[in-house]
Amino acid sequence: MKPRFNRLRGLLLVAGIVAVFASGCTFLPQRGGGDLGLKGGYNPPLAAGGLIITKGNDGVTEILSDQFTVPSADFSKTGVVTGDVLVILAGSNRGQYTIKEISKITLVVEGLGSQAREPGLAYEVRGSRIYFSGIDGYVYALGGTVLTKEAELLQAGGLAAPGDTTVFGSAEPDGFIYAIDPLTLSPKQGSKLGWRRPEGKDRTLLPLVAAPVLDRASNTLLVGSEDGNLYAYDAVTGEERWRFATGGKIWSTPVVRDGVVYFGSHDKSVYALFLNSGERKWKTDTGGVVAARPLLFRDQVIIGSFDRNLYSFSTLDGSLRWQIQGDNWFWAGAVTNGSTIFAPSMDGNIYAVDGAGRVLWKHDVGSPIVSTPVMLPEGLVVAGKNGTITVLATTTQDIGSSRVLYSPSPRDAEITAPLFANGSSVFVGANDSTVTRVDVVSQKQIWCFHTKDSICN
User: Fold this and answer.
1) What CATH number does residue 97 fall under?
2) Using one digit for the tens of pLDDT, what is the confidence trace for 183-198?
3) Per residue in 274-292, pLDDT tens?
4) Which of 21, 318, 331, 412 is nearest to 182 (CA)?
5) How far is it, in rounded angstroms, from Cα 224 to Cα 232?
6) What domain count does the chain have?
7) Partner of 26 for a Cys bridge, out of 16, 22, 173, 319, CB 3.0 to 4.6 A?
């Protein structure tokens, strides 16, 4: 029975820190007559550039061990959080330092040298830039702190000569890939496009559900399409390098390692292709549609299927290592802390699995999970479709209810887009047209942005 589709009524968060690639996924399936509640986007982000937040200083700066003190500063009002970067632009301590703790006039950072007292020392606090897309046809650019909360609206349209571009996916489900140069933009002005592919097409293409992926070593952009093809483009010129046809739609976002591309297809298969040529290395079958993004764990490809199984295949030849069964689809991609695999399921559980396929524990967040979680040093951050955010301890021991470390008040909106992390902050896109930055260490909301009202509670 063919899936039916519903259009997203809110926001699709598509990007994270530092300049990011966005792509629009506004269609997700229902099965039979039962509504699975999938009304959001599923597009992991790509990092590509940066934004510098600058704060001047005309006082005397003190550096004592790992403390950077500025009497004229008030870091508590700037939105700076742990994980941001302090950049000292002059003096014996010139360099970049990760911020560990924040007080009103003092930053505790990693790696500062000897004591110094210097008047007027120039410095910067580097936050982040977040790109995301909405169904209004715009890509939004936000600063990572409240200093740059005002959005720039980058509407896709028109073409310009190829240049040094940042690649975005479609801001609408129109089937195009856009390359936009964000350096040419002014706030609330139209964008300059380096290229748009495919060429010579009108807006009747099949939508792009899989997010584009950039291999920086070869400057190759990869994106799967509902036409069943995986396309490889030159990220600067937009030239098509190759395409590979599968037997079904491609909703799976590809992953690249050591010159090999891994992804799944609606034809119920998982593929490995050689990046330089697009030739098939191997193909292996599952019992259902494969829409998840693969996780490369050591020499294994970990990927879920709509047959309710999580699979491990050999990266060498695609042979089956192990599989575990859940009670619903494995839609979102799994993540790892390097020793344990954490696989979210639409049955509401996070499955913690070791490299041999043994289930160490599972935790029910009380809602289907279609958003890819993120791993922080503080724990695993999981979003339920019902708007709940949960931070879980990743220990392999059975600790029961103590596994929940932090759970902020849920938004009255669904969360279906993937989470994104920067330092101790998690960026959450919800279907009420909001993006929220939550700091896991301080357990506070840093800011919230609404595409219509700009600032939200």
Assistant:
1) 2.40.30
2) 555 544 555 667 778 7
3) 999 999 999 999 999 999 9
4) 21
5) 9
6) 1
7) 173
